[in-house]
Amino acid sequence: MSSLFSELVHFKKYLDMTNWENELNPFAPEASSTILHNFIAQRIAWYIENNFIAGLLWDSYRKDSENWNVEMMKRCNPDFIKLLRNFLVMNGVYIARDSRKNVIKLIDILEEKEDHEWTKEEIILQESRGGGFSKRFKPPQNFPVSSSLYPNSSLTQATGSVIKREVDQDNNYPGSTAGYSKISQKSG
User: Fold this and answer.
1) How far is it, in rounded angstroms, from Cα 56 to Cα 74?
2) CB proximity list for 139: less than 8 A, separation 6 or greater
3) Is residue 171 domain-resident?
4) Which residues of 69-101 are buried (b: 16+ CB within 10 A; e: fewer)?
5) Within a 10 A sphere around the Cβ of 62, how many other Cβ atoms?
6) Are 106 and 82 in contact, with CB atoms under 8 Å apart?
């Protein structure tokens, strides 16, 4: 793996290419920021080479980084931390767009119990303001319709159709239709 993937080329100045092929221990007391950068870059290269995206990438990142802590992350150059964050997000690992520092967000992933399912709004935000997604990851296109948009009905995604349960405004009416379903094809 002597050449760098395009995602890493601009970050070569943070790497020690003489150690690129070596197995690194980021937990050694003498581990410099360069060793940490090399370790992260090696993992990113591995993820790219093996086409790790979404849940598999999330799980692998958690296992590869399980013993990392905030202090280790803070030894890394902020640009390199941003590279890691952007790589994960653009390949399907959800990381909240909030005011917390990227170091904290990357460590918080290690505590997650399950992979986050992207919402339509999160995907739109990532595509419009977050740099989009890599060509390796295709975000989901089918989403349940939010029930908050339709306060008088309950909507659920089911096999390409939307099942709509009409809610009768007067539940005491003996001819109530509450509980009956209509199937309508989802458009688009």
Assistant:
1) 26
2) 92, 118, 123, 126, 133
3) yes
4) eeebbeebeeebbebbbbbbbbbbbbbeeeeee
5) 15
6) no
Cα separation, 7 vs 59, in Å, equals 21
**Measured distance CA(61)–CA(39) in Å, rounded:** 12
Domain that holds residue 78: 6-129
Shared domain for 122 and 151, answered yes or no, is: no
The better pLDDT of the pair 173, 126 is held by 126
Task: Give the separation between CA 41 and CA 12, rounded to whole angstroms.
Answer: 9
Percent pLDDT > 70 in the chain is 74
Cα distance between residue 47 and residue 86, in whole Å: 14
Q: Which of the pair, 137 or 182, is modelled with greater confidence?
A: 137
CA-nearest of 98, 92, 80 to 116 is 92
* pTM for the full predicted model: 0.74
Instruction: Give dist(CA 14, CA 113) in Å, integer.
Output: 32
